[in-house]
Design brief:
With 1182 residues, the protein is α/β, with parallel strands linked by helices. It is 27% helix and 21% strand. Among the domains are: 203 residues, Toll/interleukin-1 receptor homology (TIR) domain (Rossmann fold, 3-Layer(aba) Sandwich), CATH 3.40.50.10140; 161 residues, Rossmann fold (3-Layer(aba) Sandwich); 64 residues; 218 residues, no CATH class. InterPro entries: Apaf_helical, Disease_R_plants, LRR_dom_sf, NB-ARC, P-loop_NTPase, TIR_dom, Toll_tir_struct_dom_sf, WH_DNA-bd_sf.
Length: 1182
């Protein structure tokens, strides 16, 4: 006979109950501890139970060694009991004869009382009564123990025996008093399966109740949980959590492991891999042994070879359905040793946390024949409200700041910039501190990072190669927020390898790139800057880089000792005025001692003196807001690769006229060239210059002397509002790839030689606004445009002088925005622009997409925003993946795509159109008065003529408009909205409230569709339209439909009616299917409710033979119910029928995950996809 009783956590057989708080810091090593009498069950029941636990992935402790009667409990057994979540006690015939077993029993029950340990006693061939009353074998055993006690002569030992026997008796009584389950007639295998199932259930509840609260991780937890429980063979088997140090990767992985580890045959969490490998020579081998112990029954302690253990791990992973978390992977060696390359058993899942995203797909596992799928979750920190909540939990033990602490709490939250570790560390440090302490600490942090936070981030820096360390230091001090191309150009000239370096820093989450701009987390930047500061803590002039403005004042006063300085940045606007005794004027003598200076930034600084002694090693000179009227003649520029004079007072730029502009003789210019290191009279003063930025120089009138700039690659003249002329010699800059002439209002002519340039990829010619044109074309060759000046907002005068400009065939990006270009302004053919991938036609009075656009065979992105006269966009090239037609005054009526186009990102049509509008295959809108009667009849809609003249005010998130009652069609759903309180009389099946359920009746005819109607009432306008959720319970399919419009206002009525017709394919709805339709209100805050809803089922009428299918056009659309809707399937398996604008980063009703946070990978990337920029928010697919 076998009886199973369960002792619930905290329960007791005593009448009095003691409540103990759970110890959150209790460390669990095992799921189950097995207590048993070896002589009775080791080779039978207990062995079978132990193996069943292992097969179920339940980590179980079983001791194979016997112990002599009377010996004390071994320390390792006591430790195992205390570090187990549950204990199973196999009470067999001779259990009580072992003092060891009885001591285990006492300790187990103590753990239950103190720490809520789950206890399950199993009565194996014994009666609970015999255990309770110590009868039969239990009575004999206790009598034997008493005899042994009486044989003792030592009084102290007799007392110990007496206490132990009493505790044993109480423990046996407590266990036996539990109500049990008699399994006398049960098969052992069935019973063991029941025990395993019960342990699984109880452990799962325990884990869910003890897991810590993770703030800001809800989306990630839901997404990863959905991935773990998805058993599809197409689901990726490896998920990587990527993020900078302290961002929460390990915490998230622990939480997920706690939730799901018991659902797999085997599971293992290997924590701190990179750190443990560095701390100990045998660290990697120890980790392999730990993994083997967790997922395999056997471990060979005498094996000390990493490669041997890798083979053992590979074999174990291939034999069982496992769940493994490899936390903090730092190198390929670690990953290869712990994962191998032979693949996983079906249904297994691996989670890897790392700061280096590039490691995963370079490991042996991915280079094997297995080709596993892989998905990446990127942690980027918490939002402001989440950050404040986390800080307050640690600082105030509350979710909100204490009274009087709001401002300092928000300031500290801003400093932490969403970094969870920083918020926790600083929050704990601020606990029970006054406001003055907070304020002082915030000031201190700005000068010196907190050591705990710095140490967490420092590990990432230490693992970098020396080149990347120098690169990170330089970026942190000078180039955060700067253009990537500029940074790479300058630092390459300084001998730093930037291409691979920046990629590595991005992969390690130490650097980010947004719209080609270098971004860095504030805490990372401060950590790196502090490393530079530590080069010479008290003598800043001895450091390699100086960027702090307070330090710079001290540096400028020094006369020597600055040979280490390679970079200096100073922005006058950043210096506190109260620290100055008077106007600050920098003398060039202070810079002359910095002989190795390569990077110099002096923004809005007044400078006096000669420049001839400034370092000839300069590679980057940035002088925003300079008062120079022209480039100083004695400035060493021979090695300069980037010159940035933005926002300065410069009036002309022409190096070839340097001597005339400065008043110096040709002889002096020759001497000047000798001073800058030229031994040849033909050496150009700016012969190495690659980037020239004169943007926002409002007094600049002319740019020339390009013969002296043979290496120039980027010419930036944006917003030079006085610019009149760009010299024809620009053709000599044969390496030019980027020309920016945007918003140069007075530009009278552009050089005809631009068309001769063979490498130009980007040409931006945006005009000031659509009525003040700079570009007009007329009777030109296919790839020519004309640029002119127009001083009035009227049409271009007939006597305007034009200059033909041939567009370079090498162009990749072309912007013609704001230039008053009509359709007639464009040539018929742009096919000569073979490389063009991006075309910007924003803010031009075109009425349709110009025909020449269709000839662009490689076009990927097309901008036509704010083209107020645009009516149609038809058949853009099938290569287009991004189409933007936003505009506040959108008049667009039709957008038609070429069949077979790949996935497309589309954004536009921000307001409800007041006339017919259609996006091919996506949405169609027209006034109800214009809808053909035969279409309404085919939908089963009758007697609706009265609504045709009604008017509504509807809005999207972009704005509102008044319009006639309209018909909307998308996703196979027809919808109209009108004021009223009564549903049409042909809606037969009705229900009060916001949901209705029904079973589709049998019929000899095929189901045509489903009409659904509801009445929405409110006490306050506007009415927020609810989501419609249709579920086929029988087939387990659910569709959630969000209306194209957001809100509606009905004049003179507090009720509106929404009527919709749903087309279904032949397999979505059949007779006998149970259907539930529910309305989900979003954003109404309880001020509106659904009064009534109803449905009617529509069948094909076989007696009426129609010559044509009236709805055939609508049924041909690809994205509708019954067709492929895979792009609209969300993580829950439901289909969200909603097309989000690319600007919409919200998750409607919390139903959609933030897709931008999750990146899916395949094993092999297509060559033609590498290096292409992807749209930031792929919310719409076609």
């Amino acid at each position: 006979m076998v009886v199973l009783n369960e002792l619930l956590p905290g329960s007791s057989s005593s009448s009095s109950t003691h409540h103990h708080d759970h110890d959150d810091n209790h460390l669990y090593v095992y799921d189950v501890f097995l207590s048993f009498r070896g002589a009775d069950t080791r080779n039978s029941f207990t062995d079978h139970l132990y193996n069943a636990f292992l097969d179920a992935g339940i980590k179980t402790f079983l001791d194979d060694e016997e112990i002599e009667t009377g010996e004390p409990l071994k320390p390792e057994l006591e430790s195992a009991i205390k570090s187990s979540r549950a204990s199973i006690i196999v009470l067999s015939t001779n259990y009580a004869s072992s003092t060891w077993c009885l001591d285990e029993l006492v300790l187990i029950l103590e753990q239950n009382t103190k720490f809520n340990q789950i206890v399950i006693p199993i009565f194996f061939d014994v009666e609970p009564t015999d255990v309770r009353k110590q009868q039969s074998s239990f009575g004999e055993a206790m009598a034997n123990h008493k005899v042994k006690m009486e044989t003792e002569t030592n009084a102290e030992k007799i007392s110990e025996w007496c206490e132990r026997i009493e505790s044993w008796k109480k423990a046996l009584t407590q266990v036996a008093d539990l109500k049990g389950k008699d399994a006398k007639d049960r098969k052992e295998t069935e019973f063991i399966k029941e025990v395993v199932t019960e342990i699984h259930r109880r452990l799962g509840v325990l884990l869910s109740n003890t897991l810590p609260l993770l703030i800001g991780m809800d989306h990630h937890i839901r997404f990863i949980s959905s991935w773990l429980t998805n058993g599809s063979c197409h689901t990726p088997i490896i998920l990587t959590v990527v993020g900078m140090g302290g961002i929460g990767k390990t915490s998230l992985a622990k939480y997920i492991f706690g939730l799901h580890s018991t659902k797999f045959h085997k599971s293992s969490f290997i924590e701190g891999i990179n750190r443990r490998c560095k701390e100990k020579f045998t660290g990697l081998l120890d980790l392999q042994k730990q993994l083997c112990t967790d997922i395999s029954k056997k471990i060979e302690l005498h094996v000390n070879d990493v490669s041997v253990y890798t083979c053992k791990i590979e074999n174990a992973l291939a034999r069982k359905r496992v769940f493994v978390v490899l936390d903090d992977i730092g190198s390929l060696d670690e990953l290869d040793a712990l994962l191998g390359n032979k693949g996983l058993y079906p249904g297994s899942k691996i989670i890897i946390t790392t700061q280096n995203a590039s490691l995963i797909e370079r490991c042996a596992f991915f280079n094997s024949h297995v080709h596993p799928n892989h998905i990446e979750v990127v942690l980027k920190g918490l939002y402001k409200t989440q950050s404040l909540e986390l800080l307050c939990i640690h600082a105030f033990k509350s979710r909100n700041p204490k009274e009087g602490y709001k401002e300092v709490s928000e300031n500290l939250t801003k400093y932490c910039d969403g970094h969870p570790l920083a918020l926790e560390v600083l929050g704990r440090e601020m606990y029970n501190r006054d406001v003055e302490y907070w304020e002082e600490c915030i000031k201190k942090l700005k000068k010196e990072p907190h050591f705990s936070i710095k140490n967490a981030l420092h590990m990432s820096f230490d693992s970098l190669p020396s080149n990347d360390k120098e690169l990170l230091k330089t970026i942190a001090c000078f180039f955060v927020g700067m253009d990537r191309v500029l940074t790479e150009t300058v630092l390459n000239a300084c001998g730093i390898y930037t291409k691979s370096g920046i990629t590595n820093l991005v992969d390690r989450c130490l650097l980010g790139i947004e719209f080609n701009t270098l971004m860095m987390h504030q805490l990372v930047q401060e950590m790196v800057q502090d490393l530079v500061r530590q080069e010479s803590p008290h003598r800043p002039w001895e450091r390699t880089r100086v960027w702090c403005h307070e330090d710079l004042l001290e540096v400028l006063e020094q006369k020597e000792g600055m040979q280490n300085l390679i970079g200096l940045a100073f922005d006058m606007r950043m210096l506190e005025k109260e620290k100055l005794s008077g106007p600050l004027e920098v003398k060039t003598d202070a810079l002359s001692k910095m002989h190795n200076l390569k990077l110099l930034q002096l923004n809005y600084v007044k400078i006096n003196g000669s420049y001839r002694n400034i370092s000839k090693e300069l590679r980057w000179l940035c002088m925003h807001g300079s008062r120079f009227k022209s480039i100083p003649s004695d400035l060493p520029m021979a090695n300069l690769v980037a010159l940035d004079m933005s926002h300065s007072n410069i009036e002309s730029f022409d190096i070839s006229n340097l001597n005339r502009e400065s008043g110096y003789s040709q002889c002096f210019v020759s001497i000047l060239k000798w001073l800058i290191g030229s031994s040849s009279k033909d050496k150009q003063l700016l012969g190495s210059l690659k980037i020239l930025d004169l943007s926002f120089c409002e007094q600049l009138q002319s740019v020339g002397g390009f013969l002296e700039l043979p290496a120039l690659e980027r010419l930036i003249l944006r917003n030079c509002i006085s610019l009149i002329e760009v010299c024809e010699s620009v053709e000599k800059c044969v390496d030019l790839v980027h020309i920016d002439l945007r918003y140069c209002y007075k530009l009278k002519k552009a050089p005809t030689s631009i068309g001769k340039l063979k490498k130009v990829k980007t040409l931006w010619l945006d005009g000031p606004n659509p009525r003040e044109s700079q570009i007009k074309t007329c009777d030109i060759n296919p790839s020519d445009i004309r640029i002119h000046t127009q001083n009035s907002p009227s049409v271009i005068p007939s006597d305007s002088k034009f200059l033909t400009v041939s567009l370079p065939s090498s162009l990749v990006s072309l912007s013609l925005a704001n230039n008053n270009l009509s359709n007639e302004s464009f040539p018929m053919d742009f096919s000569c622009l073979l490389m063009l991938e991006e075309l910007n036609l924003n803010n031009n009075p075109i009425i349709s997409m110009p025909n020449c656009v269709r000839t662009l065979s490689r076009l990927r992105t097309l901008f036509m925003n704010d083209c107020d006269m645009l009516i149609s966009v038809e058949n853009p090239p099938r290569t287009v993946t991004t189409l933007l037609v936003r505009g506040q005054k959108n008049s667009i009526r039709k957008i038609k795509f070429v069949r077979g186009m790949s996935r497309l990102f589309f954004a536009g049509v921000k307001q409800i159109p007041d006339s017919p509008f259609e996006i091919d295959g996506m949405v169609k809108i027209e006034a109800m008065a214009c809808v053909e009667k035969k279409i309404l009849h085919s939908l089963g809609w009758t007697n609706l003529e009265f609504i045709e003249q009604k008017r509504l005010e509807a809005s999207t998130k972009f704005g509102s408009t008044e319009y006639q009652t309209q018909m909307y069609y998308n996703f196979g759903i027809f919808t109209t909205i009108y004021e009223g309180e009564e549903m049409p009389d042909w809606i037969k099946c009705r229900s009060m409230g916001s949901s209705i359920s029904f079973t589709i009746p049998s019929s000899s005819n095929n189901l045509r569709g489903l009409n659904f109607c509801f009445v929405e009432t409110t006490s306050c306008f506007p009415i927020v339209l609810p989501l419609i959720k249709v579920s086929n319970i029988t087939k387990n399919h659910t569709w959630i439909y969000k209306q194209y419009i957001d809100t509606v206002t009905v004049d003179g009525n507090d009720c509106l009616i929404l009527l919709s017709h749903w087309l279904f394919g032949p397999n979505e709805m059949r007779a006998g299917d149970h259907i539930t339709i529910t309305l989900v209100n979003i954003g109404s805050h309880g001020i509106q409710c659904t009064k009534e809803c109803g449905i009617s089922v529509l069948y094909e009428d076989e007696e009426i033979e129609e010559e044509e299918d009236v709805l055939g056009y609508y049924k041909s659309w690809g994205h509708r119910i019954g067709r492929d809707l895979s792009h609209f399937r969300i993580r829950t398996g439901e289909y969200l029928l909603y097309r989000m604008d690319v600007d919409d980063n919200r998750s409607p009703s919390g139903l959609v995950d933030f897709n931008a946070r999750y990146k899916a990978f395949s094993q092999k990337k297509k060559p033609n996809d590498q290096g292409r920029s992807q749209h930031p928010n792929p919310s719409l697919t076609i």
